[in-house]
């Protein structure tokens, strides 16, 4: 494959969005992917020349403004550039029809994000990590197995086995969803607007996730004015069930950190632990916080602290000095 020319990091590619007095600057980015483009934020640590980079991708239907910025800010403060993007068909990224979740396209978006980072001056293309949460955590495993040139990966409460997640929902959920899947597939053939299914719903309702903490968990991380929509084209369901990114963990030769919830209602922890233990250089940390608790409060502080330590160690970033007075993380 022909090498891409490196492009200077200037006003033609990014637009500054934060004051220079902060320990980092945030830039708006739009990069090409497939037939459209992805919107992203690039966080650059102030005063750091050629920093390492971590690329962040979110979970099912989620957009980067749903707390990816919180993680990215902390990484940037630790001297690690962070590139948080939104998949095509969601949020303010391109792609039509809207709310279309394609595993193949999302993995291509990851490839395009990696290519964008590699092509930019001012970033160290030899020190790149990927970071994914929930469904994006599963993608991070897949992407890591396909990109041996990366230095590290983080899989946070990762979706590792579609069948295990489907069984956690119960067989009745699959039966209820069948008519929606059929209607949406027919809409695809007829080139009509997709038939939607909620991403998160109340217990017992028809949704991709209907555990008691799913709907309030999503609502807790959606900021005012966000582009998030709680729905997705139903045609994705069969591919979700057969997607088992955890199997690729055994093919990752560089360090990967698995952050696993002991009480996860969306991605069953027992199966995730089995996959994580197959990674040759895997590191595992478990937490008593739930799947949706990872983004806020003390659980967030515990995770981001562990992730900064891991990324600093494996990306050869500047040492991290913990903030005084921070409560000890609740983890096992």
From TrEMBL:
Transmembrane segments: none
UniProt keyword list: Hydrolase
Stretch forming the signal peptide: none
Record-annotated Serine aminopeptidase S33 domain positions: 53-289
Keyword Hydrolase in record: yes
Keyword Lipid metabolism: no
Pfam families: Hydrolase_4
GO molecular function: carboxylic ester hydrolase activity
Family matches, as InterPro entries: AB_hydrolase_fold, FrsA_esterase, Hydrolase_4
Family, similarity comment: Belongs to the AB hydrolase superfamily.
Name this polypeptide is given: Alpha/beta hydrolase
Biological source species: Rhodococcus oxybenzonivorans
Lineage: Bacteria, Bacillati, Actinomycetota, Actinomycetes, Mycobacteriales
């Amino acid at each position: 494959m022909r090498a891409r020319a490196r492009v200077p990091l200037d006003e033609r590619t990014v637009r500054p969005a934060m004051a220079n007095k902060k320990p980092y600057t945030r830039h708006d980015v739009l990069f090409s992917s497939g037939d459209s483009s992805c919107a992203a934020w690039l966080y650059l640590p102030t005063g750091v020349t050629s920093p390492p980079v971590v690329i962040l991708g979110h979970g099912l239907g989620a957009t980067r403004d749903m707390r990816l910025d919180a993680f990215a800010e902390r990484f940037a403060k630790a001297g690690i550039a962070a590139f948080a993007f939104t998949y095509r068909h969601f949020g303010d990224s391109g792609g039509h029809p809207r709310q279309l979740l394609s595993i193949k396209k999302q993995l291509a978006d990851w490839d395009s994000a990696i290519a964008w980072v590699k092509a930019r001056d001012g970033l160290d293309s030899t020190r790149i990590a990927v970071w994914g949460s929930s469904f994006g955590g599963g993608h991070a495993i897949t992407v890591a197995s396909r990109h041996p040139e990366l230095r590290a990966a983080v899989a946070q409460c990762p979706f590792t086995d579609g069948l295990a997640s489907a069984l956690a929902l119960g067989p009745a959920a699959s039966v209820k969803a069948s008519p929606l899947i059929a209607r949406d597939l027919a809409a695809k053939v007829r080139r009509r607007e997709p038939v939607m299914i909620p991403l998160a719903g109340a217990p017992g309702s028809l949704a991709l996730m209907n555990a008691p903490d799913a709907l309030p968990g999503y609502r807790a991380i959606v900021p005012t004015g966000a582009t998030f929509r709680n729905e997705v084209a139903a045609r994705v369901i069969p591919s979700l069930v057969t997607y088992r990114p955890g199997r690729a963990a055994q093919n990752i030769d560089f360090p990967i950190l698995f952050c696993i919830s002991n009480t996860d209602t969306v991605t069953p922890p027992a199966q995730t632990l089995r996959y994580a233990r197959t990674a040759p250089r895997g590191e595992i940390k478990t937490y008593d916080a739930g799947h949706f608790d990872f983004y806020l409060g003390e659980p967030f502080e515990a995770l981001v602290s562990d992730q900064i330590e891991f990324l600093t160690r494996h990306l050869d970033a500047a040492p991290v000095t913990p903030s005084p007075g921070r409560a000890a993380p609740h983890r096992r």
